[in-house]
Amino acid sequence: MIDYHIYKKLLGSHHIEKQVLQLIEECERELSDEFNHMDTIAAVNQIKVLNAFRDNELSDRHFAWNTGYGYGDIGREITEAIFSQIFGTEKALVRTNIVNGTHAISLCLQGLLTRGDELIYATGDPYDTLHTVIGLREEGMGSLKEMGVEYKSIPLLDMKKIDISAILKAITVKTKIVAFQRSKGYSRRASLTLEELAHAIAMIKEKYPDIIIFVDNCYGEFVEELEPTNVGADIIAGSLIKNPGGSLALSGGYIAGKEALIKRISYRLTCPGIGAECGLTFGQVRSILHGLFIAPTVVASAYKTAILMGSAYKKLGFDVFPSTVKKRGDIIQGISFHNEDMLKCFVQSIQASAPVDSFVKPEPWPMPGYDNDIIMASGSFVTGSSIEASADGPIKPPFNAYYQGGITFEHGRYVVCSSIQSLLDKGFVTL
Q: Whole-prediction pTM value?
């Protein structure tokens, strides 16, 4: 806890009213045990990351540039070895030319599935941008559907629990991959904890040991002491401008898992016969590994900001999801505003509290890969980085906002205060 007497004087010049600060102070007192728990998780993960750096003998020479095809790029090789050790896998791909999390997931699915195979999503339909990848929309050029891959989705029971019985019944001789999306995406469903995921994987593998278990790990890295590959997942993927990049990676994505699967995926990343042997790091090794090194602490700050946001808005009478602070599987906090103007006010307040482009006023627009207009705040050092304080939401009822990120908790706290003050100023809330 900070000295709120000093903090109140500081934020007085930022037009944060006393009642807002009193609300945040009350929330922090109630969340102190959970904050301490997350600090412990960060400490455990920090040692895990440090050990991987030391065991692989990271040196300043690994930060040097290479050119051309990238043969013998020692920076790339050690980066992938470090990621592999941290995630407890046989191999990893960590590449700057993986443009986002959707791209990393798409590489996995398109690299491992062929005509006649079946993909089952065990957490309902995945995040919006993957609908085109699968072929759930008409514009399915290059989609899994066009490739001849069949698809099923199994929703969570009551939007909370993995329906293991339904998954087992849905599996056929065609089923090659059972996929789990760890985070909620643009939905109200619960994000998966490692305990839930481990149980589901064990049940599936007991009956179908040859099925590939894939986990979309976006927003979940370093939230717990373990990762999905530590509890039975065969392959995972994520974005470097989310949790594992620690806000310092400028671009890229990662894939980690079994060596044979990584090889097939690498042939999709480049081409058959070349695979992971080529690929220039463009001098980004330093920023990727520097970000990875601080990622456990950054993720802890983002996590604590998310539960503070949820706690404060719940006290204000908003419908928040998750509604409790315990057993979270990601860093995302959802808030239902039930009103477009309130949603816009909230997202615009997040942008106004940012260190970069704070003067910009976000407006809804038709982002590629989405069915509805999206409003998004991301006043970040890395464009679109959602480990930095950011928020977005689709312009459709019930007008949910999804908040994530916060490089430091100190900034995250200010973002929460400022967002409430903005709604107060517009008459959307009272204290």
A: 0.95
